[in-house]
Amino acid sequence: MESLQKLLEPLDLTPTDVKVYVTLLSHGPVSPSRLAEIMGLHRPQIHSSLKRLISRGLVEVYSGRPTIYRAIDPRTLFRIINDEFKELFSNSKKFIESISSGKNEYEYGVWIFKSKKGLMNRYIKTVEKAEANLAISGDIEFISRLRDYILSAQENGVIVYIIVYDVPGIRFRKNVVRRFNKVKRAVSGDLLVIADTKMGILAQRRSVVKNLPSYGIAVEEPMLIDYLLQDFLYRWMRSKVIIDKNIELPARFTMFKLGLIEVGKFLEKGRKIRGVFKGRWIKKRKNGIIEGRIVKAFINSQTGIAQMHVKVDEGRIYTVGAPDAVVEDFAVNEMLIKEVEI
Question: Which of 168, 166, 162 is nearest to 184 (CA)?
């Protein structure tokens, strides 16, 4: 009853109105006097509720002697509620969109969530906003909640990397990851979603596994996102492969080191790969673009060096690295890799 009362609030109905509707529904068509007798209310209260219910289209009247009232079919009730909510949603959306946003004084930062619903909605929004790459980790319950959004991202051309970590008492379900393209399995991890090096959402489970944590953070600071990606890459390289489908070329990467891994696979197979790299020249300290054939790609786990060697059309070879590159010629923010036509 309480849930129905909340659902009917947008129709400006009182708890008594809802009880009258439910009574009519359960007892069939009755007169006001009989309704007052069943509910133990005064007839003026009954008439007031019936008047509101009739004006909302929830009660029908048979004009006879005596006057008989009956509740509309529940399916019609829910259609009316649905239409009302659609109108409320549309009007509210127009109003919110008409408000000019205040000046953003904080270009980057770390924002805290203290709501399960708010946190999960932010995970979903981050997956939906990804344009090129997604790095996701979590237990199988968490991944299952994001499954439809991940599949939608893949269909839109986003390259998605997923680490599923094991939790005692929770069985790994292959059907959850069956249609994903890149999946690995790890021993432990956090609930993490990173989209295009622009946004990272992070939370840790501290209690019951099936309950989403009520505390998490949204990271927009590029340097901190880079640290989260480094940790993700470390786990990715040491995790067990579950699914590893070949990516289709051309492919765009905002996560340099994951793109480097894919390029390395192509080169090992003898395929000729060309790349277009956007970023900055390290010594010149200015932005630029490098385009050429990729002749080498590697990650040294001991030194931490991760780079590609790119031979430009003029014949010179440049080294390109991640956004935090120091020893390379060029730091990459975004790259497009494609196969050389023979």
Answer: 162
For residue range 179-207, list pLDDT tens digits in order: 999 999 998 888 999 999 899 999 987 55
**What burial class does residue 238 get, using C-beta atoms within 10 Å of its C-beta: 0-12 exposed, 13-18 middle, 19+ buried?**
exposed
Q: pLDDT tens across 71-109, in order?
A: 888 888 888 888 888 888 888 888 887 776 655 555 567
**Tokens found for residue 323:** 């956004």
Q: Which sign, positive or negative, has the C-alpha torsion 337, 151, 258, 222?
A: positive
What is the value of pTM for the model shown?
A: 0.73
* CB neighbourhood size of 148 (10 A): 11
CA nearest 231: which of 200, 208, 277, 262? 200
Cα(138)–Cα(126) distance, integer angstroms: 15
Q: What pairing do the DSSP bridges indicate for beta strands 133-138 and 159-165? A: parallel
Spell out the domains of the chain, with CATH numbers in brackets.
Answer: 2-95 (1.10.10.10), 110-244 (3.30.870.10), 251-339 (2.30.30.690)
Q: What one-character DSSP code corresponds to residue 176? A: H
